[in-house]
Design a protein that fits this description.
Chain A is mostly helical. Helix content of chain A is about 70%, strand content about 0%. Chain B is globular, with a radius of gyration of 23 Å. Helix content of chain B is about 75%, strand content about 0%. By secondary structure, chain B is mostly helical. Classes of the chains: A mainly alpha, B mainly alpha.
């Protein structure tokens, strides 16, 4: 293939990567060192590291970071455990297996806006969830309207909607484990529990790592749920980092500061992904 | 791993008798119900216009389609639906076309700096798009594209994940047919159209389905790139509607949510196998 044709074939990516990837990435790094705001008459001034210093002393930013951390720490172990349990349960053949696989995955294809609207209705103080709880003589909190329960309510929805997605990824990992390992173990008299602990879980390590990294990166970006269900309230208790970033950029038009926040989020995302790879990693040795 | 991945759904094993499956149904059944009940709630409320969001009242009936009629009669929602359909169609078509050509040259390693370009694609895959929300907004402002259809289409017309899927697929395609066509004197474009494209059909189907699901449900960028009501897509329109109305008409909102969900649910149920294989190809990276 002559060079000209190759370049013609590649050109859409070159254009898109430049215009919507590298350029904004570089431009916002530049913007993060200025006080750029489109609503102010005078142009942007260079402010050095002032935006970054401001972030470090901004209690609202720290509170958003805290909420996001609470979200990540609270949901990821639950989602991972539930996804793994579901995958183990729907892997072997049984009647109606595909019904369960399909049903568990279903929330993953529906818009987060739709899911959030439905849960907003379910969580209403006199809504269906509280109706059910009252019938069971259980406490009926105000869920999204109560500062103490709002974030956990959004987290519960996230566990509900994300588990099926990661179940499918665990299923792929399970299917990749050679059958003859289990056959050999059974010949040696290994119980089902032995097989799970000594074959399945160790060999699932790369998949587990992938699920943890992908889910962490996704959870750090939680936005639509908050926008639809709580708008960051009550008392900013559901303001996540990305929601805070959105407020700074599109309500206050403080784009310089928002650019700095975006860079901090980017660095945090990379750091956490790297840490998890270190902690759960070593896939080569684990599967050798 | 792609062989095994495809086998997730395909592995043919005779299922055991219903009796032997009962144990699993006993504990998976309630879980499945929990997964599906919110959707049952959505559909039921949408059919009961005067329920005020109460499931008990809605379930008692009477049911009718008046919320759906109101939805399609409303100038706003009808417009949102058309916008979503138009934008999704444009993005899917552009995605398939660009992923085909870019994925092909990268898969055949026919371009200088192939490794570097692929690295750029993988890096883009790893980077959550939300991080670019402010920068992309600034770029769209500079290009004077804010509040246009182009803002909803162009930044999503070329997708790193789609390209990556095609590249991986092309790596596994035998090259002999292309070489034979070249010996016969076919031009590059003719080879691509007549030989390569037909072979790429399965992966392009996966790309089309994936990009439809992602784009139809897209929320953050359509929210910030567009200001005018007449350009809003369905998720943005629904989200804003739920907040601007003084008293929320739950039946109307749930009718809108149902309409927003039906296309993706239909695509999912029809093309489940393609969707899962695309997902698993992503897990391999």
């Amino acid at each position: 293939m002559p060079r000209a044709t190759s370049w013609a074939f590649l050109s859409p990516w070159v254009l898109a990567f430049g215009l919507f990837g590298l350029y904004p990435f570089a431009f916002s790094l530049f913007a993060s060192f200025t006080d750029y705001s489109p609503v102010r008459a005078e142009g942007a001034r260079f402010v050095g590291l002032a935006n970054y210093a401001r972030a470090l002393h901004d209690p609202a930013f720290w509170s958003a970071l805290g909420n996001t951390a609470f979200f990540v720490v609270g949901t990821i172990p639950l989602t991972t455990a539930l996804a793994l349990a579901l995958a183990l349960a729907v892997q072997p053949a049984f009647r109606g297996r595909s019904l369960f696989r399909t049903g568990f995955f279903l929330p993953s294809v529906v818009s987060v806006v739709v899911l959030s609207l439905v849960f907003k209705g379910l969580y209403a103080p006199n809504g269906s969830l509280n109706g059910l709880l009252a019938a069971l003589h259980l406490p009926t909190p105000a869920w999204l309207l109560d500062p103490d329960t709002a974030l956990p309510a959004i987290m519960a929805m996230d566990v509900w909607s994300a588990s099926g997605y990661y179940m499918v990824i665990f299923l792929a990992g399970l299917e990749a484990i050679p059958r003859d390992l289990y056959d050999a173990a059974r010949l040696e008299g290994a119980t089902a529990r032995d097989q799970l602990v000594h074959i399945t879980l160790p060999l699932l390590r790369p998949t587990l790592l992938f699920v943890l990294v992908v889910n962490t990166i996704r959870s750090l970006q939680i936005f639509a749920e908050v926008f639809v269900m709580t708008r960051g309230g009550p008392l900013h208790r559901t303001t996540t980092v990305v929601y805070y970033l959105y407020e700074q950029a599109f309500y206050r038009f403080d784009l310089g500061y928002a650019s700095a926040l975006a860079y901090l989020l980017f660095v945090l995302t990379l750091a956490l992904a790297w840490l998890q790879m270190r902690a759960v990693g070593r896939p080569a040795e684990a599967s050798a | 791993m792609s062989g095994e991945a495809a086998a997730v759904e395909l592995r043919a094993t005779a299922p055991p008798a219903w009796g032997a499956s009962l144990g699993r149904w006993l504990w998976l059944g309630p879980l499945l119900l929990t997964m599906l009940l919110p959707f049952v709630w959505m559909a039921t409320i949408s059919l009961a216009p005067r329920s005020g969001g109460s499931f008990a009242r809605a379930a008692a009936g009477p049911w009718d389609l008046s919320s759906y009629r109101a939805l399609f009669a409303s100038a706003h929602l009808g417009r949102y639906l058309l916008n979503s359909a138009a934008v999704a169609t444009a993005v899917v078509l552009l995605n398939v076309a660009t992923a085909a050509t870019v994925g092909y040259v990268l898969g055949r390693r026919r371009v200088p700096g192939e490794k570097l370009w692929t690295l750029g694609i993988v890096a883009t895959l790893m980077l959550p798009k939300q991080v670019l929300m402010v920068p992309l907004y600034l770029v769209m402002a500079r290009l004077h594209l804010l509040d246009t259809y182009a803002a909803l289409v162009l930044p999503f017309a070329v997708d790193a994940f789609s390209i990556f899927l095609v590249r991986q697929y092309v790596l596994g395609l035998p090259i002999e047919l292309e070489e034979a066509a070249r010996v016969d004197g076919a031009s590059d474009w003719a080879i691509f159209r007549a030989v390569v494209l037909p072979l790429m059909k399965p992966v392009l189907a996966v790309v089309a389905i994936q990009s439809f699901l992602t784009n139809w449900n897209s929320f953050l960028f359509p929210l910030i790139f567009v200001d005018s009501d007449r350009l809003r897509t369905l998720p943005v329109g629904l989200a804003l509607l739920s907040q601007t109305e003084h008293s929320v008409d739950w039946s109307f909102l749930m009718a809108g949510s149902t309409v927003a969900s039906l296309p993706v649910l239909a695509v999912f149920l029809l093309f489940q196998r393609h969707i899962l294989s695309g997902l698993l190809a992503g897990a391999e990276k």
